[in-house]
Amino acid sequence: MSPTHASTDADADADPAPVTDPDEPTAPPENPDCQDTLDLRLPDELVALIAEQDGTQPTEGTGGDHRSVPVLTSTSQDDLLDHVGGWGPVTTPSGVFQLVPVRIERDLGLLSRWMNDPAVAAFWELAGPESVTADHLGPQLDGDGRSVPCLGVLDGTPMSYWEIYRADLDPLARHYPARPHDTGIHLLIGGVAHRGHGLGTTLLRAVADLVLDHRPPCARVVAEPDLRNTPSVSAFLSAGFRFSAEVDLPDKRAALMVRDRALRTVL
Predict the structure, then answer these.
(1) How far, CA to CA in Å, does 86 sit from each of 76, 79, 100?
(2) How crowded is residue 94: how many other Cβ atoms within 10 Å of its Cβ?
(3) What are the pLDDT digits (tens) for 16-73?
(4) What segment(s) does the record annotate as region Disordered (predicted)?
(5) Which pLDDT does position 10 carry in this prediction?
(6) DSSP string across 33-79
């Protein structure tokens, strides 16, 4: 679908807006950040990435006319997730928590053990030798930064695995009305001792707050846990996310969970 904009050059020739009765009541303006409607304007990063994959780049113009011309030079991209590794620690009711970007030579053994836990493998489907986990991490670590795999470290102990990703640049965006800078979360709690005590809820709220604090353009944090994973869906709800829709993804039927910037102090 081509980008669609709210105004075009044709607007200059449109008839004047009708005069309204000043005494007639009007509805209050709605907050767009809380509406699950499709913003049809492609984010600039996505346009650039599509152009790069096609060997073309958009020309300058007006009205979103992205005509393609051959790429003559390559430029370094900005960090697509605003430097997750620099977000720093945050104090939670369960202790001091920090997202630490994965280093495969340091973390592969631990992550592979977690992936082979039956409770994790049932939903992540990455059980097997370390090479299975390495193959999952590789595209993220070697990619353009649209997904950052991280260890979740609580009071100095690695105890969870997170993927912070640009949902609007992810295949997920084909399955829901994505908006520019929507940021997604994947999570697993690694140690059995850390499960079942409400810790997932605490950390989900903390990480969603980190995203909203450090990514000003992001109006929504989203997640798509397996609909069968009732504890996970419940944890998201308790962490201030709302259930938006059921989504059929290639590998699962998911619950689309959304935490809105505009509602973060309410939910």
Answers:
(1) 19, 12, 9
(2) 16
(3) 444 444 444 444 445 555 555 444 344 555 555 545 444 433 333 333 333 332 222 2
(4) 1-38
(5) 38
(6) GG------SPPHHHHHHHHHHHTEEEPP-STT---EEE-----PPPP
Residue 249: name the closest of 229, 219, 221, 226 by CA: 226
CA–CA dist 220, 39 (Å, integer): 13
Q: Is 89 helix (H, G, I), strand (E, B) or coil?
A: coil
Segment 187-206, tens digit of pLDDT: 999 989 999 889 999 999 99
Instruction: Give me the helices (H) in the chain, please.
Output: 44-54, 104-115, 118-124, 130-141, 199-214, 230-238
99's enclosing H/E stretch is: strand 95-101
The owner of tokens 């102990």 is 157
H or E stretch at 256: strand 252-260
Condensed to tens digits (0 to 9), the pLDDT of residues 176-189 reads: 999 999 999 999 99
Whole-angstrom distance, CA of residue 145 vs CA of residue 255: 25
Q: Are 182 and 218 in contact (CB under 8 A)?
A: yes
Give the separation between CA 253 and CA 247, rounded to whole angstroms.
6
75: amino acid identity, one letter: T
Q: What does the alpha-carbon distance between residue 184 and residue 162 come to, in Å, rounded to a whole number?
A: 10
The 10 Å Cβ neighbour count of residue 222 is: 27
Token pair listed for 155: 């009071």
